[in-house]
Amino acid sequence: MKRPLIHIFGGTSDARQICVMMDTAGIDYGLSVATPTGAQQAVGIHGEIVIGRMEAEGMVEYLQKRGAGMVIDASHPYAERLSQNIVNACQKLSVPLIRYLRPSDIDVVEHPLIHKVATVEQACEVAVHLGSRILLTTGSKQLADYVTRLTGKTVLARVLPTADVLAMCESCGLSVDQIFALKGPFSADFNRSFYQFCQAEVVITKESGEQGGFKEKVEPCLSLGLPCIVICRPSQQFSGEGIKQANGLEEMAQLLVNF
Prior knowledge:
Layout: E1 5-9, H1 13-25, E2 29-33, H2 36-41, E3 48-51, H3 56-66, E4 68-73, H4 80-93, E5 97-101, E6 114-117, H5 120-127, E7 133-136, H6 143-149, E8 154-159, H7 163-171, E9 179-181, H8 188-197, E10 202-206, H9 214-224, E11 228-231, E12 243-247, H10 249-257
Parallel strand pairs: 1-2, 1-4, 2-3, 4-5, 5-12, 6-11, 7-8, 7-10, 8-9, 10-11
């Protein structure tokens, strides 16, 4: 008898690693990613890749249609709305949910140059007092918010090299001297050279964990004497009937053994 399909939400490197686990175990699954870029990162997996953002109702319809027997939320740690939509859809259908949590390094990083904040607004409030050339390594999603709040500063953006992201940068008024289209993660040595090359005076980043190269972003700041503002992850403790949490890939693998 064919086992019920597992559906995974997430275009992260963690999500791809979970897909590889599924392939190795011979488990049927599908993967949802928001953009074609996410699909490119998942090339080579055996499961069906579904491209496009879904709201809660769309998720309900899709999961019903596919007869999903379990859902794994392996979305980005900062994708709060997506994670809540996944919870709502699973609870409506009474489908078991595993929330994958990427291990965090935030508690082991303490230094006077590191400023931990909770929001983009707070990051900008701190940054304006620390320097004029502010490098963002936070992605493009909230780029317009940074540009608006950092008026009078030189905003430098390291973003993915895709046409839609570059168009967004241009629409925010960034010039070619302010846009660095590169795909990470990068080594600490690369970041150190990059920070020097673009003459950054402040770096703003996210608590992206090992998969996102968090330590490799922070360590060069300390060695160069650059202030580093870290936007901490939102507190996401989803609980309820049928919801389990997997802290890291090892716990995820253990949960899959029992499926």
